[in-house]
Amino acid sequence: xxxxxxxxxxxxxxxxxxxxxxxxxxxxxxxxxxxxxxxxxxxxxxxxxxxxxxxxxxxxxxxxxxxxxxxxxxxxxxxxxxxxxxxxxxxxxxxxxxxxxxxxxxxxxxxxxxxxxxxxxxxxxxxxxxxxxxxxxxxxxxxxxxxxxxxxxxxxxxxxxxxxxxxxxxxxxxxxxxxxxxxxxxxxxxxxxxxxxxxxxxxxxxxxxxxxxxxxxxxxxxxxxxxxxxxxxxxxxxxxxxxxxxxxxxxxxxxxxxxxxxxxxxxxxxxxxxxxxxxxxxxxxxxxxxxxxxxxxxxxxxxxxxxxxxxxxxxxxxxxxxxxxxxxxxxxxxxxxxxxxxxxxxxxxxx
Length: 351
What we know:
The chain is an alpha+beta fold. It has helices spanning 11-34, 37-61, 99-116; strands at 70-72, 127-133, 143-152, 159-167, 181-187, 192-196, 202-203, 214-216, 222-226, 229-238, 245-255, 259-260, 264-271, 299-301, 310-313, 345-348.
């Protein structure tokens, strides 16, 4: 009897073929969607509408004020600080999100796919603190937001405590006055914020909100978790017990599996803000001719109190009926001071 030989593909071969087909399809889709100026302009309008929707959610979730300050999408993925809980990645101009960036990620994607079907390595579960962002200086009696991320390889829910410390040293030391210190914590298990008072006692819900140096706003402070990352918005008001100094923002975490980490230095902080010094009037920027690639990014503009916002982009078709100079434009605002003169499309706050 003759044995028939069966032909077929292994699982890895099938996955590689599927991956290649996916890459080809993605490249074709990218070219179809972003290959024309009209398609890119449509993406710009849709992106700004999506960002505006998230900003209105932020407004309702954060004491009815928007994010303050001026920011552009040239600064990084989280280019509007504090808006990242509403996005995985805040949209950027189509010309910033180039096909080269997509193709550069393809080898990583295939490598990760093949890694997932292989044996799983065993990792030590060690909580580590991530990043912290906020103002570079603070003034007395004003509430400021510090956004900190806490990373845990076992997942954000494994984090038990997440701390923020503001001091010139990495120890909580009330006796260090006049420099002072402020320490707050989130208990991630019971979803409650705690602060340490002057006596070194933790105050939880119903207790005090801080010490002689600062208070934590328990109502507007917020947190969210995704994957291995816990993100906390700490809303802190500084009191004039602080003396002029160069302070430091510190973070650390403690989880169920491995216990606490050391304090990790975050950003430097000046208390209080130095007096403003007059600055000369800026020289008007020259009018661009034809618009270079550097003009294709998004801009966010707001006042210091966050009472309004403007989102701006540059449409490639300057005759678009929704350009700000058109009689049929939905947003006919003039460009904010400091914005590129090439910006010609805007979305404004409802408030």
